[in-house]
Amino acid sequence: MPRLRWIFIAAAASLFLFITGTVYFFEIQNILRLKELVEKRSVEREEKKRSVDRRKEEVKFYTTEAGIVHLSRERHGLTLPGDRVYVILGASADILYLR
Predict the structure, then answer these.
(1) Which of 32, 37, 95, 99 has the fewest CB atoms within 10 Å of its CB?
(2) What is the per-residue DSSP string for 18-73?
């Protein structure tokens, strides 16, 4: 029959192994969760970076003369001299042609 001292040592060793195993299990779960978050955030970062690059290109374009002309035509309906303008009224109204 084993002595009480050996039973106590075996119980302490088993408890120690159980506790360390549990800690390692939860830490591995935490590491995997953080790894997924890092991958998700890196994808979001790349999307934001592409968006910023696209905005920088738009700013470069709209600071040129062609960009200013494009913006004035798009937002304010302005035209250059010599442009032909067609005004289309609703479906029930007559179509007006300007020459």
Answers:
(1) 99
(2) HHHHHHHHHHHHHHHHHHHHHHHHHHHHHHHHHHHHHHHHHHHHHTSHHHHHHHHH
Name the β-bridge partners of 87.
96
Neighbours of 63 (CB within 10 A): 9
Cβ atoms of 62 and 71 within 8 Å: the answer is yes
Give the residue carrying structure tokens 């120690």: 16
Taking 90 as the threshold, does the pLDDT of residue 26 lie above it? yes
Q: Which residue has the higher pLDDT, 58 or 96?
A: 58
The pTM for the full model equals 0.54
Is residue 98 within 8 Å of 87, Cβ to Cβ? yes
How large is the average pLDDT for residues 11-18? Answer: 97
Q: Tell me how far apart the alpha carbons of residues 35 and 29 are, in angstroms, rounded to a whole number.
A: 10
